[in-house]
Amino acid sequence: MSFDFLAAAEQVAAVAHEHAAAVDHEARFPIATVDAARRAGLLALTSGTDVGGHGLSLRAAGQVIERIARECGSSAMVLTMHYAGNAVLEQHAAPAVRRDVVAGKHLSTLAFSEAGSRSHFWAPTSTARKEGDSAVLEARKSWVTSANGATAYVWSSRPLAGSEASTLWLVPRASAGLAIQGPFDGIGLRGNDSAPVVANNVRVPLANRLGDDGAGFGIMMGTVLPTFAMLIAAGSLGLAEALVHKTAQHAGGTRYAHLATQNALADLPTIRAYIARMRIQVDMAKALWQDTFGALEQGRADAGLRVLETKAAAAETAVQVGDIAMRVCAGMAFRKEVGVERLFRDTRAAMIMAPTSDQLFDFVGKAVCGMPLFG
Ligand SMILES: Cc1cc2nc3c(=O)[nH]c(=O)nc-3n(C[C@H](O)[C@H](O)[C@H](O)COP(=O)(O)OP(=O)(O)OC[C@H]3O[C@@H](n4cnc5c(N)ncnc54)[C@H](O)[C@@H]3O)c2cc1C
């Protein structure tokens, strides 16, 4: 029988819903959601059937993330980074590591961004040197989601040799010499546990290399970027969907007691027009998102460009929709009772996650103008 991943997503979304307010308020890692995802088989969603995984598509992962983001942005972020890391593991890790993912023993994430090269994640300044059978890593990673909760990081460094941009490694979180500099205290996605991680003389077996020495840039662009971009877009769209729903609910259920007729907030044409704009913006971004899955699945020539467009469109849509929700729900949104302010804060992250919206506008502009993206 095929895996009913949508039913599994519903179950996990219910758990995410139950814990979302506390995860946000206490900046607590959403361990209950991660455990529920593990029990429901969702950590193994995209793992290959050859190691016992469900072998499902990026589109399926997107549907899962979109559903969970409607309840808890932090949970969606943690699962997004797991799927992004696992995309690399699926192609380049030893079967034993892949089986650990399927067994629920492994939560993955990406350790790309660095204090030196900042959002230019494709250009690490951190180093790796060969000593016997080990690689010795030195780094100042600036943001690692699930820094404390992940089992191992998919990690970028300069290559051991040669002038390529990067090499990728699987770095166990418990490695000697790794220091997690948390806790996370941000305005949104407060449970995502995204902390700086410093590596001083961290030794990993050379066998932990993911792909060839110097192949990191190609893996980042070919594997990580489409996965991360489409799933972070899913998270943005889930947050945006919840914002539309909660705003419409508030407008329909809120009344002016001194007016005898047409006394609901939604009776104001301006309010309805704002809600219509929210709906249209979200539907437009969703249509692009779905078309991009089609482009990737069919190997369409425009797939790469569509991926860049989709992350920017979804992130910017969520921000705009969050702004409108705050305006429409007004004083009630400024406090926590309507439930839009957490969503509003959570929407602010995707546009500054690399590649940031402004980088994407530059890349898309260059592509449209027939210019090389890098250089
Ligand atoms: C909640 C959260 C979780 C994260 N999790 C992870 C993670 O798990 N792993 C990881 O590796 N990283 C992670 N990041 C880091 C993220 O991907 C970015 O690297 C980081 O947010 C960039 O911040 P910065 O201050 O270094 O940006 P800066 O590089 O200082 O950018 C500042 C501004 O300059 C703009 N800019 C920079 N370059 C260009 C350009 N070429 N064209 C146009 N504009 C440009 C940017 O858009 C931005 O507006 C996370 C970030 C957040 C917020």
Descriptive overview:
With 375 residues, this protein is of the alpha+beta class. It folds into three domains: 5-102, Acyl-CoA dehydrogenase/oxidase, N-terminal domain (Butyryl-Coa Dehydrogenase, subunit A, domain 1); 110-212, Butyryl-CoA Dehydrogenase, subunit A, domain 2 (Beta Barrel); 217-368, Up-down Bundle (Butyryl-CoA Dehydrogenase, subunit A, domain 3), CATH 1.20.140.10. Helix content is 51%, strand content 12%. It contains ten helices and eight strands. The strands form two sheets. The chain has a four-stranded mixed β-sheet with strand order 1-4-5-8, covered by helices on one side. A hairpin with a 2-residue loop joins strand 2 and strand 3 (134-144). Helix 1 (5-25) crosses helix 3, helix 4 (73-92) packs antiparallel against helix 6 and helix 7 (269-298) packs antiparallel against helix 8 (303-334). The longest helix is centred in the middle third of the chain and has 38 residues, at 216-253. The N and C termini lie far apart (50 Å). The protein binds flavin-adenine dinucleotide. Residues 81, 109-113, 118-119, 121, 143-145, 189, 192, 194, 349, 352-354, 356, 358-359, 362 line the site of flavin-adenine dinucleotide. Residues 81, 109-113, 118-119, 121, 143-145, 189, 192, 194, 349, 352-354, 356, 358-359, 362 line the site of flavin-adenine dinucleotide (FAD).
